[in-house]
Amino acid sequence: MNAEPSFISLQGVRKVYRGRKEDFLAVSDVTFDVQAGELVSMVGPSGCGKTTLLKILAGLHSHEEGTVRIGSQADSFDAARDIGMVFQQPLLLKWRRVMENVLLPAEILGLPMAEARARAGHLLEMVGLSGFAQSYPYELSGGMQQRAAIARALVHDPKLILMDEPFGALDALTREKMNLELLRIWGESGKTIVFVTHGIQEAVFLGSRVVVLTAGPARMADNFLVDLPYPRGLDLKTQKAFGDYTRRIYKLLGME
Amino acid sequence: MDDYSEKLRKWVLIIVMHLVAVLAWQAWITIGEVEPYIMPAPLDTFATLLEYETYKWGHNTLITAASVYGGFWLAVVVGVVLAVLFSWSRWLNDAFMPLIVSLNMIPKVALGPIFIVWFSYGLGPNILIAFSICFLPILITTTRGLNEVEPELIDLVRTLRASRWQIFTKIQLPGALPFIFSGMKVAVVLAVAGAIVGEFIASEEGLGYLMMQVQVTLDTAGMFMAVLMITAVGVTLYGIVLLLERLLVVRDARME
For residue A159, what is the DSSP state? Predict the structure, then answer.
């Protein structure tokens, strides 16, 4: 059907952590494709292997079985330059001002700094922190720190953004706000995003595709497209179609 | 403006309280008719400053300051360098750290007579005694600081293929600075104690030596003044450390 090769392709990925007494199955049966520019939510309970899978995508973990391919001939992928990461904690360096924090990846990669600085300025504007470039992280609220972390993940213009429960430590209201912000940033930047969360509503609200992982045993249970139009607003959550998707996930996780 | 007047109020209070303590001391001696060889009055104590030929305050204070500062800064350099080496090599750390901790159990003061045999009298052995007594806190806090990096931050820079040197200079070392300073603050007090003990037993000059000399004639006023001078040497060094911390460590990262 689709002649264009996908940007990410996972086939039968399985990983086992070798323990002293017992082995621990971290992920299994993971097979899905992601097109360039998609926002994929990976949702599941603790221990379902979603973080492990993210680290496999980041090249930080190996896997035993299956294949992981990122990029294609038409859409090249350089593992060092094309990954931006955002974690649950902002992980900003306390001794650097926001601007210098955002520039960290550019420094490590040895990019031309004048360009990087200009780009960081635009990104700070995009995440709504243009007035805070010279502030220290401690002068920012949790939500603002996480925006800075998102700007940092984008500064070297990577093709793939990996996010591990980035809004999990924020209060509910800030979290909703950040969801809307993320959709806007995704729309403006056109990046491919893999977004790990344990929030079922969050997964459906954000994702153009949702991958559901279950724990005990850790395996992939579902992978479907979310056919709800962008731009999405909070009123989406009251619509029947939205409820249908979330119910589908609740059912898979044995919560209905 | 409020911040300024708050600071002023604090400083005025500090000065007033010190003056009150000295006045109370003088009043107690005058009213209580305490024998001067038991407890000298502050005025008699300060009067010793005028008898330069007897006490050679300038010279003796400089000698003591040289032992304290020499031992202290040597400890800072050796402690930080060793901690860096240990953080680079697991093997070095595992091999030498237990040995250093055992050696630290030796009461360094007891080494004084041995140092005299090895290095004779004078500044050298005193610097060494001050060094040996105060370098371990710096080594230990620096080691901890260098290892205190969020694992996810390491993940983030590993996806960017950061070199070990980049991780060290951009993340580990600046992150360890607050720890280094907290070790230095402990070390100041120990360095002063080490240098004075050294002068008690292994020196022919310095404030510690002076105290032993004037003790023979029950010159408590001279001894009190010597203690005040020793305190001044320590307070000055502590002030320098605080000032450096203020210059080098962002407020939020300082360890109080």
Answer: S
